[in-house]
Amino acid sequence: MNTPPVKSGPRYDNFIQSDKVRVIDENGENIGVMYTREAIEQAAEVGLNLVEVSPNADPPVCKFLDVGKYRYEAQKKANAARKTQKTQDIKEIKMRPNIDDHDYDVKMRSVNKFIDNGDKVKVTLRFRGREMAHQHLGKALLERVQEDVAEIAKVEAFPRLEGRQMLMVLAPK
User: Fold this and answer.
1) Residue 8, domain member (yes or no)
2) CATH number at residue 47
3) Which CATH number characterizes residue 118's domain?
4) 4 inside domain
5) Would you say residue 68 lies in a domain?
6) Between 20 and 30 A from 130 (CA), which of 37, 146, 152, 173?
7) Domain identity same for 66 and 95
8) C-alpha dist (Å) from residue 46 to 10, 30, 66
């Protein structure tokens, strides 16, 4: 057996399940509460459909509209909203515990740029060989990073050791 396709979008005309509806005409004026069948007939006289705009109201609110045009406008609005939304990425900055001042400044410029763009920053500190014996240097470096970005970012994940690397996540304030 074939099942009918699922209708997406607002209910209209004979798909409206309520007996009575509050009707708004094509000019935006409130006509009042009436039987759904009457409202469908009035909409057809004007050459429009009866479209359910607020199904959760009591009684549901319906409007005289052109269904195709209404769906098209809603789709355009949804596409515009999708274009303007900003996704938050996680950028990674890798350092070593014995990083020099100039290299540190370059890395911090990148961190500031990423945070200004609204992205999260994962600061990874990699230890090699005997550097594992001097984890306090790594901890001090990450605390320095934390202080330098205190005005523009907050620490989302405090420094923690995972194997041979220490991680910290910063998020924009």
Assistant:
1) no
2) 3.10.20.80
3) 3.30.110.10
4) no
5) yes
6) 146
7) no
8) 20, 16, 10
Do 63 and 100 reside in the same domain of the chain? Answer: no
**What's the number of CA atoms in the CB half-sphere (13 Å) around residue 142?**
27
Tell me which residue of 173, 138, 140 sits closest to 155, measured CA to CA.
173
Residue 7: predicted pLDDT: 64
- At 101 the pLDDT is 94
pLDDT of residue 82: 86
The residues facing 80 across adjacent strands are: none
Q: Decide which of 59, 83, 107 is a domain's last residue.
A: 83
Give the pLDDT means over successive 10-residue stretches in the chain (173 positions): 62 87 90 91 91 88 90 90 83 94 96 93 94 91 93 92 93 91
At 143 the pLDDT is 93
Total number of domains in the chain = 2
Residue 5 lies in a domain: no
Number of helices and strands (H, E) in the chain?
A: 4, 8
Amino acid at 148: D
The DSSP secondary structure of 57-75, one letter per residue, reads SSSPEEEEE-HHHHHHHHH
pLDDT for position 58: 87
